[in-house]
Amino acid sequence: MDERHRVDGRQDGELTDVGQRSDAEQLSAILVDGRRAGLTAYRDRGEQRVFFHTETDDAFAGRGLAGELVRQALADVRASGKRIVPVCPYVASYLERHDGFAGITDPVTPDVLAWLEEQLT
What we know:
Helix content: 25-40%
Shape: globular
CATH topology: Aminopeptidase
Radius of gyration: 14 Å
């Protein structure tokens, strides 16, 4: 099931959407005119959503799309009742700059890292 969230990210008439995917890929993607401009990948671990990678296509760099993507992905975590674990450096940096998610953020622990490594291999 895909949930789509429209954002005000127009540049030169482009249409920007943030899509939350809940399939086996476990990622949130930001689309510009239907083209994937970036993604943040995660794995669910019980009541935690472990974010481990965020990227944007170089063609879309400097537009604030990664920040909007992560903001929406974290808002989706809040809405789901889960907690955030920021293994991804970009997500961790975002959380340092935006304290609105502090109450639902868990630390990255050795147990989480070992679990994530198992999930990704």
